[in-house]
Amino acid sequence: MAYALGARVVALCGGVGGAKLAYGLSRVLPPEELCIIVNTGDDFEHFGLHISPDIDTVTYTLADIAHVGQGWGRGEEQWTVMQELERLGGASWFKLGDRDIALHLIRTQMLRVGQSLSEVTARLAAKLNVRHAILPMSDDEVRTVIETDKGDLAFQDYFVRRRCEPRVRGLRYVGADQAKIPLEVARALDDKSLRGVIICPSNPYLSIEPILAVADLRVRLQNLSAPVLAVSPIVGGLALKGPAAKMMDELGDHNGALGIARMFRDFIDALLIDKQDAALESHRIATDPRLLMADIVMGSLDARIELAGSCVAYLDEMRQGH
After folding, report:
1. Fewer CB atoms < 10 Å away: N or C end of the chain?
2. 9-13 vs 196-199, strand pairing mode
3. SS3 of 209, please?
């Protein structure tokens, strides 16, 4: 069965790692054929500003203005405000560049006059010449709380201030059971001509599970007629970015790429793993999703685009069998 002309691919995405694949997808799919749903579980208020780190990372990346070396924040940034805050004794553990602060100021003002996070995200993305749809997972507040050996920690306290050092004992996605997905998200997932869903290689606990926890989103994925493909954030037993492998070990989950397959086995049709993990196929059990292979380490812009093309090709292949 060929996909309908203009059929959409929906991507679920976190920050730096997921944004790389989102960038590749934005280069192989036109705006009308891609919708990127982004985690907001790590949103927080800092100095009175509403900060949406994952949304900003995806937006800056697609706008080609992200800091190339660190993956987050803006390139050609200046730090005058941060330097003065430090001089005056203000909290400096969460770094905000001057241009970044300008965006947070505008977002906060727009939210305070009653615009939804979806509306604000779309307008700011358009100002930065991003044409592909970037949607928050919810316009309602959802906050990721990490239960650790040092007590319950807000996401940014665990991830940035404490550099993921405390041992993780569990996670909660506060507000997710009451949150609703935006209308645009529901429409994208309910589209009868949906080409498929791609789970970007983001931390499963900190970036993907918060999205899945919102309303009936996971159930929608379970009931899709279109294929769902996840891209492993683990290669050779190590996380491509961040503490995913460390967290899997601390939580007692099966580590490595097969652990990702089993976390998402109730709604994904296949997991895309790196070619160096090909031997995992022999360890796969009957209830595991199908394993597909590609070069998934995105060390260059060309590699991002190549991986995105492979993901879309695999979706089309799987859709033929649906």
Report:
1. N
2. parallel
3. helix
Close Cβ partners of 59 (under 8 Å, ≥ 6 residues apart): 121, 124, 125, 128, 130, 134
**How far is Cα 35 from Cα 70, in angstroms, rounded to an integer?**
25
Residues whose CB falls within 8 Å of the CB of residue 320, separated by 6 or more in sequence, listed in order: 1
Contact 243, 146 (CB under 8 A): no
Structure tokens at 281: 């196929």
| pLDDT at residue 6, as a whole number | 53
pLDDT confidence of residue 136: 98
Q: What is the pLDDT of residue 253?
A: 82
- In this prediction the pTM is 0.94
- Whose tokens are 């070990």? That residue is 249
Ranges of the chain whose pLDDT falls below 50: 1-5
Nearest Cα residue to 247 out of 207, 215, 200, 212? 207
- The DSSP symbol for 255 reads P
Query: Is residue 38 within 8 Å of 136, Cβ to Cβ?
Result: yes
DSSP letter (8 states) at residue 69: T
Shortest CA distance to 40 belongs to which of 111, 154, 112, 136? Answer: 136
Task: Tell me the CA distances in angstroms from 180 to 52, 140, 184, 295, one per residue in order.
Answer: 18, 7, 11, 36
Amino acid at 162: R
From residue 223, alpha-carbon distances to 37, 158, 190, 228, 313 in Å are: 18, 34, 10, 11, 22
Query: Which residues, 6 or more positions from 25, have their beta carbon under 8 angstroms from its beta carbon?
Result: 9, 11, 34, 36, 198, 308, 311, 312
- Secondary structure (3-state) at 186: helix
Q: What is the pLDDT of residues 243-260, one digit of tens each?
A: 988 999 999 887 789 999
- The CA distance from 162 to 267, in Å, is 33
* CB distance 25 to 11 below 8 Å: yes
CA torsion, points 114, 118, 123, 129, in degrees to nearest 10?
170
What radius of gyration, in Å, describes the C-alpha atoms of the chain? 19
